[in-house]
Structures are given as structure tokens and as C-alpha cells.
Design brief:
By secondary structure, this protein is an alpha/beta fold. The protein is 38% helix and 28% strand. The protein has one domain (2-99): Glutaredoxin, CATH 3.40.30. A five-stranded mixed sheet has the order 1-3-2-4-5. The relative contact order is 0.23.
């Protein structure tokens, strides 16, 4: 997984071709940390089809706010720099993320 920050977010996500999944998380978010192993497993499963990234919102608060991330965890799928779909808080489960990816891949 690519670790995002304010310096590489635009290049890795907004200017990227294809699908990019961003896991917005924080060290103090217990559900975020519980979900991380599942997301890392999905990164292996969908390697070559989707770029997987994570952004610690405590180090990039303004960036998270600019992407309208209001709660954690938030999983956002971008396509060619545009927000395609998003899951947050209780909706961000392993199954719902899989479903979001499957529908994006067709």
C-alpha cells in the first residue's frame, strides 16, 4: 500500500489513471486499525487492477477535510481522479468494500 501525505496525494490519487482506493484512517481509530489487515489483503487480491493507498488523517487534516472525510474509517474509491464511491464509519466493512470494488470493476 502506498502511504499518502499532502505532498504525494495529488500525484498518486487525483492525477492517477484508473482506480485508486484510499483508506482514510488514524492511529487512534480502533475500527480503522481493525479493518487495515482486510484492506491490505484486498491490495494483494486486486493488485494490478486497483492502486491501494492509505492516508493518516492526523498528519493531513486539511487534506482529509478537502476530500470531505468527516468520519473514520472512510474508504474512498477514485477513478481517474474523480470520487467514484465512498464508505464511512459503520458502512466501511470488509464485505461492503469488496462489493464497492466489484461494482467498480464491472
Amino acid at each position: 500500500m502506498i502511504v499518502l501525505d499532502k505532498d504525494n496525494f495529488e500525484t498518486e490519487v487525483l492525477k492517477a489513471d484508473g482506480l485508486v482506493l484510499v483508506d482514510y484512517w488514524s492511529e487512534s481509530c480502533v475500527p480503522c486499525k481493525a479493518l487495515l489487515p482486510d484492506i491490505e489483503e484486498m491490495a494483494k487480491t486486486y493488485k494490478g487492477k486497483i492502486k491501494f493507498c492509505k492516508l493518516d488523517v492526523t498528519t493531513a487534516r486539511r487534506l482529509a477535510i478537502s476530500q470531505k472525510v468527516l468520519g473514520l474509517p472512510t474508504i474512498t474509491l477514485y477513478k481517474s481522479g474523480e470520487k467514484l464511491s465512498e464508505l464511512s464509519k459503520d458502512d466501511a466493512s470488509k464485505d461492503s468494500i469488496h462489493n464497492m470494488i466489484k461494482s467498480a470493476l464491472g
